[in-house]
Amino acid sequence: MIRTTAALGALLAAAPALAQDVPLVPREAFFGNPERTMGRLSPDGSQLAFVAPLDGVMNVYVGTREAVEDASAVTSDDTRGITDYFWAPDGESVLYLRDTGGDEDYHLFMVPPGGGEARDVTDVDGVRAQVMGYSYAKPETILVGLNDRNPQLHDVYALDLTTGERTLVYENPGFASVLADDELNVRIGVQQTPAGGFTVMSLDGESPTELFSLPPEDALASGPLQFNAAGDGFYMLDTRGRDKAALVLVDAASGETRDVIAESDEADVSKVIFHPTTHEPLAYAVEKERVKWEALDKRTRRQLAALDEALEGDFEVVSQTKDNAQWLVYEDAATAPGRYWHFDAKKRRATPLFTTRPALEDAPLQPMQAVTIPSSDGMELVSYYTLPEGADADGDGVPEEALPMMLWVHGGPWSRDNYGYNSVHQWLANRGYAVMSVNYRGSTGFGKNFIEASHGEWAGKMHDDLIDAVGWAVDRGIADPERVAIGGGSYGGYATLVGVTFTPDAFACGVDIVGPSNLVTLIESFPEYWKPFLDATFNRGIGDVATEEGRAAAVERSPLERVDQIQVPLLIGQGANDPRVTVIEAEQIVDAMKERDLPVTYALFPDEGHGFARPENRLAFFALTEGFLAENCLGGRAEPIGDALEGSSLNVPAGAEDVPGLQAAMEGFEPRIAN
């Protein structure tokens, strides 16, 4: 039965008041464009590139690290912005990927670093371009993959960076991925097996020959990374014969493991710093609750120690010069927006370059607590939570009284939550909520057994993990059991729909962003280029819907089948062009709820794909979310919608009346659709 208005009112009235002197940080500070982000050094270190707004749209700027403010835009995208770019190895151009309206059919463009006309070097409609390899050994060429011949497979082309001409160098006979050496010769192919594993093949001879196999249980945690400089071996992450992924060197001719370079019993080896030209591994990171770096030589050990001393948060080396003398380092601290640092690797000196969101530097950002929570069947669930300012007077991680809480679930599911600055955590904590994120089984970085435990457990033990974490928070007085919401994107959106259908008494409301409601239609509508990976991912995780047994399993775990169980309000956000979780996933459950007169608000964005790339659309959706949570289930603070819809493409086919101020804000509102 739906909660009555009177019952909702009593719950909201019981919400503890946040300290009145805590400033309400504007939504735009969290979800608008960052001032600068995605810094990259040119190969010789003389120039610095980054992404920043140009007329409100994220574009690539190039300047110097000594005069960041004087950098100039070298691209002029006026629609969704640029989210992926890199320097050409010769330093003579900047290359970037761009799709249309979120359809993920990416084209590759190149532009001179001094500015000029951008050139589309993969100008084939309906085709997805991928960068397959580049090297300082052949700086005038990069390898590009195009699925123009077969939409499931990417053939490999050599792209001449001087002329922009493409030449076919490898016609893909059926490999899910390929790996090239330092001379850009395609030498390794990875082929999916029907059981869900992969066979790693050598392409050095006249025909492919098998080097070794990755059984299904190793498929999602293992795989080749890059060749060594000599070309006689390649580095890979390997879980064969162990639980946690190790960094190993494999002989390219025999497939035998030559050396186990790094491993840990705590977590997978997750990041590796390689020398840009020798390709020797210099350091590696493992990440359980926090990132821990280990150097592989004395010089790198001293360099990492200098960074540890200079920086407060976890960090990652995101760019290196060709000679490895300069690094660009991203610092991720929970109570500060992301920061970029220049690191002189010879002098071991770190110099700050820029902060991604300066407006948040003086904001009341709150500490993030890292905890490992036991699941009901003995799994370790690495989790993170954030409390509102003033809620934890003793500093012990427990508020003075139980709080309304948002459980925010990561997507994937083969991904993970991390420690550090988190816009959703800080925004909701500022509104008066506890916020928790859980690495449920299937999350990556915690070993292959943790992934294996998720197979067949969509809406099963994967969801039990989330419920166990909520129970942990309730038992410790962090969360009020009557005022827990669930939200997230992609798999997190699916978990939200599972939460309000499979466990209808557990949550007070849900916020679903691009989440699948029907696992059969989800899998049947996947883009063609996902097909070579399906046996190792969704077919093992859910079931092969081409079989009677697999289809039945997918139906059983689909929230759409249990829509009658919904008792609480639901907010759904969807991009109309999403190629992964298509618009039908939202429309099916919205229609089913409307037929049953269940409370649903549906926010549709015609110019978005899998998530909200345009800041105008992010701001519009989170303005709806804020009012929805305050009015319908959690009772915290909310910034009025005001002009938050301006410039967005928002369409609300259902439930506008359930968000305070939305109907008034939409009067006279003209959506702006950008493609």
UniProtKB/TrEMBL annotation:
The entry's keywords: Aminopeptidase, Hydrolase, Protease, Serine protease, Signal
Pfam families: PD40, Peptidase_S9
Protein name: Dipeptidyl aminopeptidase/acylaminoacyl peptidase
Signal peptide positions on this chain: 1-19
Keyword rRNA-binding attributed: no
InterPro entries, A to Z: 6-blade_b-propeller_TolB-like, AB_hydrolase_fold, Peptidase_S9_cat, WD40
GO biological process: proteolysis
Keyword Hydrolase: yes
Entries under Gene3D superfamilies matching the protein: alpha/beta hydrolase, TolB, C-terminal domain
GO molecular function: aminopeptidase activity; serine-type endopeptidase activity
Family matches, as PANTHER family: DIPEPTIDYL PEPTIDASE FAMILY MEMBER 6, SERINE PEPTIDASE S9 FAMILY MEMBER
Domain of life assignment: Bacteria
